[in-house]
């Protein structure tokens, strides 16, 4: 019925040998990421540098940057063990060797995209990122002490989450290690009010989680994160009260105000998020939801529906954005050539250490202390 990526991958497990070959060829031909090479070539300036790759405030709900042209925020990962050799063969145009050594040429080319970006002669790139930034911000906002302790001690959040959910010790590649996968999928899917549908969309069934385990997984995660679930509904109540009564409401160090036809959410950083012409209306379940005007999934201006957990997602991502922007300001003595959600990429002298960059980037903004 469909030749989409997920559907083809699913069919590969069940069809005969002849169809396997056809579907694999289909996968290779459909590899769109290799088209980035053409975009990179077309976007290169006279000095071979790429400019205009980011749009300030491109994501209007959170204020995050949006990728443009090459889309640096969406580059394929590389897992080739012999990356340098593969890159060398491509540069030489040695097609025969590539075909002999690598089964899937488009996939190999896709994995080499990141290596096409190089620093100027005599310089190097330093890439520093925030680990699990959204999960950390969410824990801080909610005041979920056990999660904050996990991050402070540098532990594995997936193991710790599974341990909290199932009340047993969980160690990666150790005792109850099989539960880590459930902790991981729960962490990725459930932080913003997600339920069974979110787990399925995240690929829980493909990861070995049974259908009858999905709802218990949702329940276990929410029970082990009571402060996060409290945050969702505190924000939900605050937004509705603000819009209903046209008053300012404060919760979890976030201020909600109605002014001149806007719902205004003031973040701890003092930056504000704006929602146009908000209303509290009855939703399809018979309850109340907040709606506002904005650009929807159809790319048209329309009335959009939201509720507590979704607002928490916007707030969390917006705060994470502000933390990155603060870090970029602390790195102003360096040349930042790119930044992607939670990481900064610096082009600098070879004598500069990663540690020195990380120390600067790791400074806590005054408003977050």
Automatic annotation (TrEMBL):
KW Transferase (keyword) present: no
InterPro entries associated with the record: DNA-dir_DNA_pol_A_palm_dom, DNA/RNA_pol_sf, DNA_polymerase_A
The DNA-directed DNA polymerase family A palm domain, residue ranges: 110-352
GO terms of biological process kind: DNA-templated DNA replication; double-strand break repair
Transmembrane segments: none
Catalytic activity entry: DNA(n) + a 2'-deoxyribonucleoside 5'-triphosphate = DNA(n+1) + diphosphate
Keywords recorded for this protein, A-Z: DNA replication
Keyword Ribosomal protein: no
GO MF: DNA binding; DNA-directed DNA polymerase activity
SUPFAM superfamilies: DNA/RNA polymerases
EC nos: 2.7.7.7
PANTHER family assigned: DNA POLYMERASE I, DNA POLYMERASE NU
UniProt name for this protein: DNA-directed DNA polymerase
